[in-house]
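S.,

As promised, the zinc ion run. Input:
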Amino acid sequence: MFLNPRPTSISNFSGSLTGELFDMLKVKVLEDAEDRVSLQLDGVDRSYANAVRRFCLSEVPSMAIDDVVILENSSVLYDEILAHRLGMLPLKTDLERYILPEKCDCGTPLGCQKCRVLLVLDASAHEKTRTVYSGDLVSEDREISPISASIPVVKLAPGQTVKLEAYARLGRGKEHAKWQPATVSVLLDGKSEDSFVLKVESSGVLRPKEIVTKAVEILEEKLKEMQKEVSAKVE
Ligand SMILES: [Zn+2]
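Predicted complex:
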C-alpha cells in the first residue's frame, strides 16, 4: 500500500540525527497508520538499516508490570502465574515522563515517581463467577494503563478475591519479551543496493513512528559512545 507518500529526511523524521553517517540517507514514508509504519530508506548501508530494525525490538524501552505484591489471592491461579499474566499485559508508554530504573537516582527497590507506576487490583466475586479484566486494574497514572480493558486476567468463583499492587517499569525487549514495543520489525530489500523498506508494527504501547525514531536515537547515542571510547583509547 502506498499511502500519502511524502519524502522527508531522517533528520526531519527524528529531529536528532546529524552524523555524517546518515548524510546520504533519504526516508520516504510509505505507510503511516495507527499500528504500523512502513519506511523506504535510501542511501544507507544494510548493517545500519538492520541495526535500526533490531533496535525497534530489543532496545526501545516500553512499560510492563515487573513486580507484584500479592495482598490476597484466593483464586485458582498461583501467585507466580498471576504475576506472570500481569507482566504480559501491554501498557501504554510515555517515554518523556519515565526513565529506566537503572538511570534513576532513587535507588529504591520499588522505585519512585520517575521510574515506576503503581497499579492496584482489588476484585472479588460475590454471588456469581466473575472474570477479572485488564480494565479492573486502577493505575495511579491514567496515561499508563493496559492498551485494552478487555484482556482476561483471572476467573473468580463466588467468594474468591484477588487483591494486589503491581509496579510497572520501563525495560527493554533484550531483557524480556514483555518489554518489546514492536510485534513485527522487518527489513525488506528495496530497488537498489542501498535501498530498504523497514516495516514496523507496534503492540500498541507506543506509536509505530515513535518506536523507529527512538531506535534511531538510541543507535546514534551508541555510536557516539563508541566514538568516545575509541578516541580515548587511541589518544
Ligand atoms: Zn526512581
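Residues 62-178 form a domain with the RNA Polymerase Alpha Subunit; Chain A, domain 2 fold (CATH 2.170.120.12). Residues 24 and 43 are 5 Å apart (CA to CA).

- D.
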